[in-house]
Amino acid sequence: MVEDDRKIAILTREYLENYGLSVDWVADGEAALESAERPDYDVVVLDLMLPNTDGFEVCRSIRRRSHVPIIVVTARVEVADRVLGLELGADDYVTKPFSARELLARIHALVRRARGRAGPQALLSAGNLTLDVQSCTATLEGRELALTSYEFALLRALAEHAGRVLSRERLLDLAKGGADEVFDRSIDVRISRLRHKLGDDSRQPKLLKTIRGSGYMLVGDAK
User: In the CATH scheme, what is the code of domain 123-218?
Assistant: First the structure.
């Protein structure tokens, strides 16, 4: 947890630890970057307004080298700040003042997505796209895609329903893992980033189609 407000940090850590989580707390961006070198964290809870190095830069730096789920925490109310956090690779966000109970639910949801839930079908494929549900990895034409846990959850939902249109609401419901998504337009940001990683900005025909007024569809038959 990266939080410069000592009172908020202590209260939040105590609440999370009462529910069985182990929490390391640092108070600034530079310490966060040092701590993020450790590979054994399940989630990073990251305040955006930090001394020294701000949360946006920390988020960008962590995402360059790790797929660890990131929840950004911000007191800012501007939609642009929240969108920027998502564009830099955050998986979710909460706004201050926030409920520790809500934060706990979002942490659990991200961990479930990141760890995956391998069912009878551990591999999904649609055309040249293959998803390993157990390891939460996706490959396109043999090349592994660098996806966040939320992006993988979205892609999995699309692959499981390949060839069918999914509305924004249905996609959110399939991918959220039990946490409420309070900023439903963020789906457009996430889909845009996912489309870029699929190479749809240079690929013909596109793998991920926008069906105007209806939602999104992954092209191809699910296998």
Answer: 1.10.10.10
